[in-house]
Design a protein that fits this description.
single chain; 110 residues; mainly alpha
């Protein structure tokens, strides 16, 4: 995973509270899990087909994907990426077309 993506992701991923009792299994790092999630999303394989070389198991990656989805991490990451591209001048909003079929306008201009 590119370092640039990881840096942006770190801005939006929620911190995990420390386990008060201690012990238990080590939680896989967010970067390892994110790489596994990206692999599943881009290859179309199932969570169970996730190669062991990623570290976290398919169920672990899926569980974290669900946690992050509930926390709206993906929407936040999308916004951060767009803002970052815009700040660097790599995104030109003037050239973005709006499809009127998908755009709703409220009556009365509200």
């Amino acid at each position: 995973m590119p370092d640039e993506l990881w840096e942006l992701f770190q801005r939006v991923v929620p911190e995990v509270p420390a386990r008060p009792q201690g012990g238990g299994r080590r939680r896989y790092g967010d970067r390892e899990v994110l790489a596994a999630i990206i692999f599943v999303a881009t290859t179309g394989c199932t969570w169970r087909q996730l190669p062991p070389s990623f570290g976290p198991s398919g169920p672990t990656a899926h569980r974290r994907f669900s946690e992050w989805s509930k926390a709206r991490v993906w929407a936040k990451l999308h916004r951060v990426v767009l803002d970052d591209l815009g700040a660097r001048g790599e995104l030109d909003w003037t050239r973005c077309a709006i499809d009127s079929v998908n755009m709703r306008a409220l009556k009365g201009g509200h």
